[in-house]
């Protein structure tokens, strides 16, 4: 039993941010119904990273566990009626359609809340639901670029570099997840449902609360230096440095301790808080020139001995074998109906009484259509009639 056991979520989202938010609700025990076209959500068919599956690719698997699939044609009256009936039984309704699509399909807040006044309706978009940018594509890289974050790292003159993960999608997903939980708590206290609006642009701005406040409140300009640096507003040394056999990450270690550890007496005379910013390039160059003298393992041992913040730079092959990752159970392994043994990232939280779990793998297209229509009161004959008419798709 999960903490959200007994709650139902209707998930009309696609791509990453929406499906991830809905999956987190499912991980906590909610009955998540993924409503998708009769041909399946497009993410099923996009070989993300070149990884294909037998019938379900890795990307879809990673974002859609703990869900049931209802494959229905929302362009038909009968299809809309089915989802409306489903929404009347739900606690959360989540969609990330382009502006105007929800209204055109009859899946907008006014329609759904009219059927179910207690519904928590989560609407996700790229830039907001009104304003000059509503028609722009809400894609992770484009929002990373617009957010300003790319110019907080690297070296002056070098091209801005995106993050190595779909950072804005993930931040937006967790904003929607948080918003849904907060609105459910409000409903438990008042009985009132409400609309929760989340957009990628605001999420990207909000997560930079420290950096942007340094600029807007402190008036400190965002400035990259001549040497590569991990973050404009963090004192040197801060970033990834080459060693004799690889790389090491340094997270603003104390300059007095670093002077001893690296045998760089020049650093001992510097003030970390002041010179760490004003002499950033000089400090970075000194450290970068010294570190290739030893291996990563040697430097990590030395830094640990001097209580300096340093760590290894992993690839995925290193990460999955790390003893702390294994100890934490950061990945989960389960059996999937068509894909066999599946290992994917697990849960970012733990609960002593109601731990999250994998109750079912990502569904096949329409795998639960017949089951769900039965729950909604449709007869077997009526369901099969709708399948024959192309309103529904079922996995036999």
Automatic annotation (TrEMBL):
MF GO annotations: transferase activity
Keyword terms of this UniProt record: Transferase
Superkingdom of the organism of origin: Bacteria
Protein's UniProt keywords contain Transmembrane: no
Name of a matching Pfam family: CoA_transf_3
The protein's name: CoA transferase
Species name: Nonomuraea maheshkhaliensis
